[in-house]
Amino acid sequence: MATDQKLQAEEARKCLQEQLKNIGDVEQRELKNEEGHAHLIYLKSMCDPILVNDNLINRFYELNSMELFERFIRSFPSSLEPKDKQELLRNMLRGCVAIFIRDRVLLLDAVLVNAGSVQPASTENVMQGPDDSFTENIEVNLNLIRHRYQTTDLKTEFMTVGRISQTRLIIMYDEMKVDHSVLKELKKRLSELKTDIIQSASEIERHTMHPKLRLFPTLMLTERPDRAVLNISQGKICVLMDSTGYVLVLPAIFNDFFTAMDDKIQLPLIGWFLKAIRYIALFITVMMPSLYVAFTSYNPEILKMQITLLIAGSRATVPYPSSFEVLFMLLAMEFLVEASVRLPKAVSQSATTVGGLILGTAATEAGLVSNVMVILVAAVAITNFVIPITMMSMGIRVTKYLFIVLSTFFGLVGIVLGIVSLIMYLTSLRSFGKPYLKMFAIEWRRKGDPQSG
Amino acid sequence: MVRNKYFYYLFLLNASINLINYVPRILIQDRFSGVLMSVLIAIPAGAILMYVFAKMLQRFPGEGLPEIFHSVFPVWISGLLLVLYGLGWYFSSAITLISFMDITSRYISPDVSPYIVLTGFLVVVGLSARLDSESLLYALEMVLYITMPLIAYMAWRVYSNPYFSWDSVRQIMTYAWNMPNYRTVAAATYIYTGYINMVVFNRIFRRFKVRYMFSIILVSIVSLFISLFGPIGILGANGAGEHVYPAFSTVDALRIRYFIIERMIYVFFVVYMILSLMNSIIHWHVGKELVLGGFKLEGEKPSLLPKKRKAEWWVLALFAVVIFVLATVINQYTLNDMAIVFLDVRFAGEILLVILLIYAAIRRGRRRRA
């Protein structure tokens, strides 16, 4: 037997005791019978006490033979024999029990899982579809996906990231449909990840994507198993992560962020209609404020005479240029949105009511903003919420300010400049080598379902 | 790697941008002498040039003009040729941008300084021209799908207008047998000239092949018909010659009755501003690649990339400064003359380019056989 490969029990135990000094939740148990003795060391907070009692302690006294006990432990698929101290320590911190029998060290996985039950989705609601969402436990999530996608082509590769957090990841994909260049790229980027703590899926997004400063997400986060499954079936890759209820889907292109799961549930024509609605909403929420500035301050002659007079009439009492008016109102709206997200439920109701009343009625009656402006701000706010994926709607929220700045300085010309730059910017982005914005993005999805998801 | 359809987009972009680059004006100036005959000559001439060019380029899959020239000519000849072609191609965008600056201050925002507008143009064009060729083609596709329906709508509105004078069109038809002249032929072939962009974009095409020549010719006939007879029908056979931008004056005569925007000119302006910017971006990109290729900084070689990225800034800054200085110096008349000179030189240059390519293909073929 190659003794230099295996860890010597005595030496390891000393070393462990050294390392685990001042850690209060370490539990050590000395088991003794006629045959000999065994020693268990584990972190009480990480291990399942029932499992330890049933499988190790009770069994030790029942079996009454060191030989048999060791064989019994080795029969578990989750047991292993560590090669060095680092491996031993790492696995103990993960939730393994270290068992010292005779001169061997064995590890048995007894991790205690504290997972809530499967909850209904909260950020991506649908009307008439499945309602489950991912939990914070990676095994449950794996189960949720496997349950919906029953084929051996569904591959799962395990990985850990984060130097201290040692967060577990599972890369899932359908081997027959996945684009292998994307898979390779993903693994490369994940292995290059050098951060101490990874706690949420969006952190992976931030650390793996280039360029760092971006306005639009190039990875999708979803909390819906059905979306993950649909995407896997279209040849995309899902990255499951321990301790978050979100799954990364990649590569994600612009159009994916305008797709809700409803589109699949409804009849095809209605699905297209819903999608068209979302793109119209995108146009309105980005363009409306800047068009208002351009039309009132630079080119009032563009609109029909009656509309121009209407706007001018309602702006008659407003004492400052239209760009300030737009900025004030939009900022007020952003404050309101931001406040109602953070506040407790009970208070947020009254906050929105007060804010809405002040914005809606008092400001116009005082003559600080025009009536048309209030309608416009409301339209902008509502259309912004139409975009189904939160990350995208945040990006859009910022984009409209860039357009306002452009139209303040250049008028209509600035808006057109903005449109061209936006198209240029979006087409220059890549999500794992896939073009982000393209007129007909179906080409690379030819293998899967032509409808996007 | 992109598919063949992007070649047609490049063609379509140039075919539609002719309205800004003084092509209608030059055609209309010649309306009582040989314009029809010139157009009739220009259509097959341009189509043949395009076809031969595409056939020759197929012999060099995945190669741009710099790679082709450097492999068959001595360094100094190919360097000189590439820089000249690059600057010539860039010059086309100079005319587009300056005339669009002029149009903006004339029709849209007379109270904004034209130089501020031009600075905005140059910043957007300069930054976008640095992107990779593939992204530019995707953006081009996007832009064309946004603008083409609007152009079709406007063309339909021009020809369905009750005040459209078909008599004027018929009057011009009576001059069909007059002798053509070089200037008008050169201007009319501008419709086809989008294929020149392939000298750089060929690098990313997967097995480039040109097909559907018939529909290309059809599209060019339609666009020439629109840029020549649109203004003549609306502004009159005589009156059409009085305008600096006949296309803009024509569209300004249209009214949309049932929409929140009343005058067609604003739709037209937005559409053509997007197209002009897109066209300039692509021309700068091609010009930049050719000029850099002239200094042996071609393609995406990893060893040259940092140096190329640095040199790129200088070339693009130079492009921007030259246009800005030109815009402050020249006036309406010189701009018009510049456009005419450019169109004349361009046609000759295109013929020379095709001849050079044929020569290069023969050299390459002989070397392969030897």
From TrEMBL, chain A:
<keyword id="KW-0812">Transmembrane</keyword>
<dbReference type="InterPro" id="IPR050768">
    <property type="entry name" value="UPF0353/GerABKA_families"/>
</dbReference>
<dbReference type="Pfam" id="PF03323">
    <property type="entry name" value="GerA"/>
</dbReference>
<comment type="similarity">
    <text>Belongs to the GerABKA family.</text>
</comment>
<feature type="transmembrane region" description="Helical">
    <location>
        <begin position="369"/>
        <end position="389"/>
    </location>
</feature>
<keyword id="KW-0472">Membrane</keyword>
<protein>
    <submittedName>
        <fullName>Spore germination protein</fullName>
    </submittedName>
</protein>
<feature type="transmembrane region" description="Helical">
    <location>
        <begin position="401"/>
        <end position="426"/>
    </location>
</feature>
<feature type="transmembrane region" description="Helical">
    <location>
        <begin position="279"/>
        <end position="298"/>
    </location>
</feature>
<keyword id="KW-1133">Transmembrane helix</keyword>
<dbReference type="InterPro" id="IPR004995">
    <property type="entry name" value="Spore_Ger"/>
</dbReference>
<feature type="transmembrane region" description="Helical">
    <location>
        <begin position="318"/>
        <end position="337"/>
    </location>
</feature>
TrEMBL record, chain B:
<dbReference type="InterPro" id="IPR004761">
    <property type="entry name" value="Spore_GerAB"/>
</dbReference>
<feature type="transmembrane region" description="Helical">
    <location>
        <begin position="73"/>
        <end position="100"/>
    </location>
</feature>
<feature type="transmembrane region" description="Helical">
    <location>
        <begin position="256"/>
        <end position="275"/>
    </location>
</feature>
<feature type="transmembrane region" description="Helical">
    <location>
        <begin position="135"/>
        <end position="156"/>
    </location>
</feature>
<feature type="transmembrane region" description="Helical">
    <location>
        <begin position="212"/>
        <end position="236"/>
    </location>
</feature>
<feature type="transmembrane region" description="Helical">
    <location>
        <begin position="112"/>
        <end position="129"/>
    </location>
</feature>
<keyword id="KW-0812">Transmembrane</keyword>
<protein>
    <recommendedName>
        <fullName>Spore germination protein</fullName>
    </recommendedName>
</protein>
<feature type="transmembrane region" description="Helical">
    <location>
        <begin position="339"/>
        <end position="362"/>
    </location>
</feature>
<feature type="transmembrane region" description="Helical">
    <location>
        <begin position="35"/>
        <end position="53"/>
    </location>
</feature>
<keyword id="KW-1133">Transmembrane helix</keyword>
<feature type="transmembrane region" description="Helical">
    <location>
        <begin position="6"/>
        <end position="23"/>
    </location>
</feature>
<dbReference type="Pfam" id="PF03845">
    <property type="entry name" value="Spore_permease"/>
</dbReference>
<keyword id="KW-0472">Membrane</keyword>
<feature type="transmembrane region" description="Helical">
    <location>
        <begin position="313"/>
        <end position="333"/>
    </location>
</feature>
